Amino acid sequence: xxxxxxxxxxxxxxSSGTGMGGGFLVVPLLIFLGKDVxxxxxxxxxxxxxxxxxxxxxxxxxxxxxxxxGLALAVGGLVGAQxxxxxxxxxxxxxxxxxxxxxxxxxxxxxxxxxxxxxx
Length: 120
Known about the structure:
This protein is mainly α. The chain contains 5 helices and no strands. The mean pLDDT is 86.
């Protein structure tokens, strides 16, 4: 459990500093630790809930919040969050891993090239 807690701390640092949430690292970590895909996804939300609440408080103290946009995203997220688990139940583990990896690589490539085009 110490390794899991240390992994959680690392993911907390990365997710609160990048705004990428924690699932993109927690889910692969839990799968690596031998958890079933569906259990890994569901369990990751415990981490995400508490890490997001803590990061929200920290960003609020720093004045890094745009409440109107964030709340609008949250409304859509509440609806989507009810649909996602039902869809996940229909997807085989191997397919989920491939789609998840494709999304991560796609976002990474997009960010790499968008940063380059913005003079970063």
